[in-house]
Amino acid sequence: MKQKYYLLRIEMREIEPVVWRQFIVPAEISLDRLHDVIQIVMGWKDSHLHEFNFGRKRYVENIDDEFDDENTFLEGAERLNEHLKKKGDKCLYVYDFGDSWEHELKLESSDYKLREDDCEISCVDGARACPPEDVGGPGGYEEFCKIIKSPRNKEHAAMVAWSNGCQPTGKKFDPEYFDVYAVNDLLGWYVRWDRPRKLY
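User: That's the sequence. What structure does it adopt?
Assistant: Structure tokens below.
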């Protein structure tokens, strides 16, 4: 059977202006591999727990005392196309339960035709930077952005120093930064590294 590809859009909730990405994955990608891809396209560091929510069902990496109820399942055995089937279908991806970054993941095309320069997993478009890890959730990020834009703020120097290295540029954190080519370089490395373990 010929491999189908999905065109997905992911956007962060409670962040204005919105941080979003549009990307391609195999329709049968497992949820644990989809988590890896989301981390790369968004710019997260995979330093915290995460979960996928499809209605009342939640899918996690490991089930323990914190995640142990009749509606919680392991993500590794689940395929994306078992849950998102037609254009407009959505789910919720939550990263870092402390900062509680909520992302809406939406299926934009259930039969995307790869272009000549598309990889089987690639980022098509996007806008704005992913917040720094551990910045304090949407409210903390809003405050952080105000501080780094205000050199007279007494916390400015400390926040700029704290956020150095968050972006590949190595410069002061820029909330508008997004480089689709840099993202696709990382995705290319991921696909090559992950091929022996199968992406889907």
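Residues 5-128+178-197 form a domain with the Structural Genomics Hypothetical 15.5 Kd Protein In mrcA-pckA Intergenic Region; Chain A fold (CATH 3.10.290.30).
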